[in-house]
């Protein structure tokens, strides 16, 4: 830290930028790093993303993988364990599994529950008496894992139970919306750098250190701009915040920074960068310079 | 996939969904023959199918097609009992229209 503060500012910033944005871009950090890294680490890090996420079926249908065979992602975050709520539209019982067609009003998906022949036990569906499972059109809550088989998405259910209180359906939809918003806009918190979450904490610490050193010796302009960054973009999406942060930390920002440099620096995909650029252009925080894919911060 | 999605709506959204399939959660106000009036932030007339088993005063979820006169031809209905929080259901409709990326196809 002392080195960065005291040393030649430009080089120091450029290097911290690289470290910082990779750390701050949580979930995407490894993608920017190296592919073999993410593949090698898959076995070990698989459980890191195993938090249970409430989703709508439309989100499942829309989910995409970064590269063939990769994890399916919703809002840029890999999803594995999910919970969803929907009505049973069709039941296809086989000897080894039961496939339910589930409809929640936003879309339709197949949910596969493997039949455990040994346990005649305590699952709701077997307790319900019928090996065929639930009655048509009943609402059920499903806990499971989003998987692809023959490039077709389905949910492998760990557990399915009937919903007794209809309000749980509405509750689930609100929860799915809440989680979606928390992921794209960042959790609600105070305006400053710490707001963007765990990974970004390191990031802002580096940057503040760097700017702090600068302010102590000479330039106060940079420090002012630095501290203003988080509050100006706090209403923007997480990608846009990373974009803006990268732009503000780049040297020679007057000429603007080109798309490829931003892709490399932030670990976002080109498409994500363009979307973030649109968002920031719309709010008047950046402007295009020499061409449509080069942006600089609009300072006023 | 669009054909299978049934957006959640209330009475106020009906005119933008004429000819489309929608889902309505509301309270059965009156029930007369195969016609019911359902309160979902405003009264909606629903033309029921033969399978419908509704009871006045309890909640219902209907899925059906919006006619040009803003009544609904019911394709599927589900009795929800009496413990339905209607203000919650209406709030959910608002949220689903505010955040279309999670809930709806344009």
Give a brief description.
The complex is a heterodimer of chains A (300) and B (106). By secondary structure, chain A is α+β, with helices and mostly antiparallel strands.
Instruction: Name the structural class of chain B.
Output: alpha/beta
Q: Work out the oligomeric state of the chains in this entry.
A: heterodimer
Order of helices and strands of chain B: EEEEEEHH
Which shape of chain A, going by the Cα principal axes? Answer: elongated
- Beta-strand content bin of chain A: 15-25%
Terminal CA distance of chain B reads 12 Å
Chain-averaged pLDDT of chain A? 70
Strand order of the largest sheet of chain B: 2-3-4-6-5
Shape of chain B: globular
* Rg calc of chain B: 13 Å
Distance from first to last alpha carbon of chain A: 30 Å
Major sheet details of chain A: 5 strands, mixed, barrel
* Biggest β-sheet description of chain B: 5 strands, mixed, barrel
What is the rounded Rg of chain A? 24 Å
Structural class of chain A: alpha+beta
Poorly predicted sequence stretches spanning 5 or more consecutive residues of chain A: 1-44, 121-131, 190-229
Mean pLDDT of chain B: 91
| Number of separate strands of chain B | 6
Give me the CATH fold name of chain B: OB fold (Dihydrolipoamide Acetyltransferase, E2P)
Strand content of chain B: 35-45%
How many β-strand stretches of chain A? Answer: 12
């Amino acid at each position: 830290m002392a080195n960065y503060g005291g040393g030649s500012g430009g080089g120091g910033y450029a290097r911290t930028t690289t470290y910082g944005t990779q750390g701050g871009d949580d979930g995407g950090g490894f993608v920017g790093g190296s592919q073999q890294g993410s593949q090698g680490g898959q076995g070990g890090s698989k459980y890191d993303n195993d938090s249970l996420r409430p989703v709508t079926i439309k989100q499942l249908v829309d989910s995409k993988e970064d590269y063939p065979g990769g994890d399916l992602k919703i809002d840029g975050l890999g999803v594995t364990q999910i919970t969803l709520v929907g009505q049973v539209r069709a039941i296809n019982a086989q000897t080894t599994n039961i496939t339910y067609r589930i409809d929640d009003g936003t879309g339709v998906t197949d949910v596969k529950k493997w039949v455990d022949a040994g346990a005649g036990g305590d699952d709701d569906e077997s307790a319900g008496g019928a090996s065929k499972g639930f009655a048509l059109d009943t609402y059920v809550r499903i806990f499971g894992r989003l998987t692809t088989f023959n490039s077709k998405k389905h949910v492998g259910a760990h557990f399915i139970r009937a919903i007794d209180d209809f309000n749980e359906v509405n509750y689930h939809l609100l929860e799915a919306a809440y989680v979606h918003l928390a992921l794209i806009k960042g959790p609600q918190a105070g305006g400053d750098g710490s707001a963007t979450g765990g990974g970004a904490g390191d990031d802002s610490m580096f940057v503040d250190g760097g700017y702090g050193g600068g302010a102590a010796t000479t330039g106060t302009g940079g420090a002012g701009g630095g501290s203003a960054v988080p509050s100006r973009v706090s209403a923007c999406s997480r990608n846009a915040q990373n974009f803006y942060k990268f732009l503000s930390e780049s040297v020679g920002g007057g000429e603007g920074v080109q798309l490829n440099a931003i892709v490399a620096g932030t670990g976002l995909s080109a498409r994500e960068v363009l979307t973030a650029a649109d968002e920031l252009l719309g709010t008047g925080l950046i402007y295009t310079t020499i061409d449509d894919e080069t942006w600089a911060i609009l300072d006023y | 996939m669009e054909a299978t999605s049934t957006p959640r709506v209330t009475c106020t959204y009906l005119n933008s969904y004429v000819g489309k399939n929608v889902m309505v959660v509301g309270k059965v106000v009156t029930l007369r023959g195969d016609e019911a009036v359902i309160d979902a932030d405003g009264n909606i007339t629903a033309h029921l199918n033969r399978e419908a088993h509704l009871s006045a005063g309890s909640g219902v979820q209907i899925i059906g097609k919006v006619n040009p006169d803003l009544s609904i031809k019911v394709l599927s209905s589900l009795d929800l009992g009496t413990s339905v929080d209607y203000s919650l259901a209406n709030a959910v409709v608002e949220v689903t229209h505010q955040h279309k990326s999670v809930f709806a196809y344009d």
